[in-house]
Amino acid sequence: MSTLLYSLGRWSYRHGLRVLLAWFIVLLAAGGGAVVFGQGTDNSFSIPGTESQEGLAQLSRTFPQVSGTSAQIVVAAASGDRVDEAPYTDEIAATVTDLGEVDGVLAVTDPFDEAVSGLVSDDGTAAIIRLQFDGQATDVSADTRTQLTEVSDALGEALPAGSEAALGGELFGTSIPGVTITEAVGLIIALLVLIVTFRSFVVAGLPLLTAIIGVGLSMALIFVATAFASISATTPLLALMLGLAVGIDYALFIAARHQDQVREGVDPEESAARATGTAGSAVVFAGVTVLIALIGLSFAGIPFLTTMGVAASVAVAIAVLVAVTLTPAMLGFVKGRIVGRPRRRARDSAQESAPKKTNAWVRVVSKHPIVSAVSVVAVLGVLAIPASSLALALPNAGMLPESNPARQSYDLAAERFGPGVNGPLVMTGTIVTSNDPVTLMDDLATEIEGLPGVERVALATPNETADTGIVQIVPETAPDDPATADLVRELRAQHDRLLDEYGIDLKVTGFTAVGIDISDRLGAALLPFGLFVVGLSFLLLMVVFRSIAVPLTAALGYLLSVAAAFGVVAAVFEWGWFADLLHVTRTGPVISFMPIVLMGVLFGLAMDYQVFLVTRMREDYVHARARGGAGAPRAIAVDAVRSGFSATARVVTAAAFIMFAVFAAFVPEGDSSIKPIALGLAAGIAVDAFLVRMTLIPALMTLLGDKAWWMPRWLDRLLPSFDVEGEAVERELALRDWPSADSTAVVSAEDVGLTVRDTAVFDALTLSVEPGGAAVLASPDPRGARAALFALAGRVATTSGRLRVAGHLLPGRAAWVRGHVAVALLDEADDPLDELQRILDGPPGLIALQGLDALAHGALRDQASAALRDASGDTTRTIVASAADPDAARRVLYDAGWRAVEIVRVDTSSFRSAVLPEVTA
């Protein structure tokens, strides 16, 4: 990965204009697609497989008059007036007639109709006009909504002074989130942080530009996707927040590494390639962790949440691609100006060559690790206390700003009719077996009305064909009150009893029940999702750091950060702390998917900081041990914590400030759905970056010392390797001039070895094969030579020595070598001659022949020599072969005209045959 990114960074640097134009073309194409195909987002929520959704589906088939979305106009009389007297009755009757003529309105309920009850308040001061629509809120056209608003406004103007007419209900109960001017404040803060970090206006703008291009593309693709899938209105805003935050940060990591290298004297082009290969590798790893966590949102089994996770993951993936391609391209435009403004106080050469100073913060933390660790845990524990009272619900009109007519309608209805009128429940079932459906429904109404938590039964009636009945229930509590959820569970608990007594299979449904079912499903998914995220972080960090302790401390820190973030959200939205300052329109439950989204996103971002900080600590520790650093292993480990922290703290601090600013900007004027998510992410980032990663982790690493890097050997062998800090790039740079600047060898090997389970399969393999030359590998056990051949062909990763094939250093460039070096298993082929011919008919280059001595006898030898003869004078062909009988293999090549055939002995003296099949499989 790192070597590929190194090459990609160099190419992008050299062809900056092409890269920039390519991204602009893709952006314009996606934008055009969004304009042409975009169908708009919606705020409807559904959850297949739940009782409430099944009930809605049943009603849509048998009782469509009550299955779709609804709206209401609440009319409140002026002080001293009654709505059941003129002129209110006349104006309400005229309005009912006008509403019936609006396109899309399925039914209008007159509050004074004798067949209905509960639509006029007990004191006669308010009335509700109910409207029913076919389908969900997203099925109602904007034209219809406009007509409804006009009719409602006309009613309000016609009523006496001091009266109110407010349009609201399910149809208007949720708002479509949008971007406000305050989000620009986050970008301004990000720009200021970048200017301070880079000490350059020009360079500071690069991460912003790349992030904006990435976000623009991801947003366009999301709106294109609305033509093929239903996407909630919250999805683009979440993708916007994440895309901006990670887009700026990922470009920052690469540009900061590049700037440091150029300041140290590295050529800008070489530095851009190195930065992309090293910091870019960490960016890819960090992006992958965010992607996995976001895609893990599908754990809940809720379609709209799965779509949200996939859309946000697309935004992050685009941010990664833009960072590793467009960032080096933009660095190519600024070239030497990347160094920025020099420090105020110039240092002399002696100072320049002196060791860099240890960061003051990590010096304090590492000096008092126990106090630091306990203090952080205590602070985060206190912050997490409010999380115990966090309640979840889907958004409704009660969460809208007080200036919104739907909020006014919600508040008026709650004030005059009780809070439950805004969230009626519906029980429905098939009644085809009943001989007296009207009496049956009345009896059911009487039964249900006596249950605790039921304010009244507003309607109990069969449909026109008398095959389905409904009971509309008004709870005593608001739709987002936990007591309403308890009532739904109680109604469902009565299912078996009511089925036995009345023979009707009742389902509890309605908009409020759907919201409760979604909240319950999300709450149940939190534990498995949390285990998935924590388990994933543990495994990923074990792969990266080759340690047990580092993943444990990282997972502990993540859990503390999540708990603290939940606590901050609960303190603001449940307890009301700083609610006015943050423009929280109403305290109470937060949107149901906030916890799972926050956990997923925060996991990925926390791993970013963990990787960038601790990788440098590991690098310094390993290098110090390799150099035979002075002092005990523990002292070396503590020094590595300090030096690694000092080298990365500036960039991580800037990245955390930027992420905090971007997320926090969505809080003051944000939509009620996105506001708690943004606040949770802002708080989580601040806590995780500054308290956990930059305080708790260094303290714990200091306490652990060299034990932080311990891992059992058997586990180290099982885990794959991931070059997160570009070690392969560093190795390539170190061996750039090996074997020599003027070397023309196709294969160069020096002391190459392969060890499996602490046993050397082969060792000290040294050879050099020039273009057009040939070499035969031989060993006492033919499988040893076979393993060596596979190593030269890039099929097996060597564990020691130096190996370059066709100019590519192994094992870092093994993917390229595998794709360009052909291997023929002659001793296993049914027709070895045909297999040889197939390889020779392929592209020129290096050919690896296993078991060439299989063609060394009889007629096969002559035919093989004839096939090889055409390639004997071609310098584009080079052969490396293995053979149990190397002399026989050499004779085949000699007969074909290959005069200089070297036999190379492969040392397998210490190998046990039991381990070899695993290598050659």
Summarize the structure.
This protein is α/β, with parallel strands linked by helices and 921 residues long. The protein folds into five domains: 2-40 and 177-340, Multidrug efflux transporter AcrB transmembrane fold, CATH 1.20.1640; 51-172, 2-Layer Sandwich (Alpha-Beta Plaits); 372-388 and 547-714, Up-down Bundle (Multidrug efflux transporter AcrB transmembrane fold), CATH 1.20.1640; 425-509, 2-Layer Sandwich (Alpha-Beta Plaits), CATH 3.30.70.100; 736-920, Rossmann fold, CATH 3.40.50.300. The strands form five sheets. Strands 16-17-18-13-19 form a five-stranded parallel sheet, with helices on both faces. Strands 2-3-1-4 form a four-stranded antiparallel sheet, with helices on both faces.
Commentary on this structure:
The protein has 921 residues and is of the alpha/beta class. The protein folds into five domains: 2-40 and 177-340, Multidrug efflux transporter AcrB transmembrane domain (Multidrug efflux transporter AcrB transmembrane fold); 51-172, Alpha-Beta Plaits (2-Layer Sandwich), CATH 3.30.70.100; 372-388 and 547-714, Multidrug efflux transporter AcrB transmembrane domain (Multidrug efflux transporter AcrB transmembrane fold); 425-509, 2-Layer Sandwich (Alpha-Beta Plaits), CATH 3.30.70.100; 736-920, P-loop containing nucleotide triphosphate hydrolases (Rossmann fold, 3-Layer(aba) Sandwich), CATH 3.40.50.300. It contains 30 helices and 19 strands. It has a five-stranded parallel beta sheet, sandwiched between helices. It has a four-stranded antiparallel beta sheet with strand order 2-3-1-4, sandwiched between helices. α18 runs antiparallel to α19 (549-573) and α21 (633-664) packs antiparallel against α22 (675-704). The two termini are 24 Å apart. The relative contact order is 0.09.
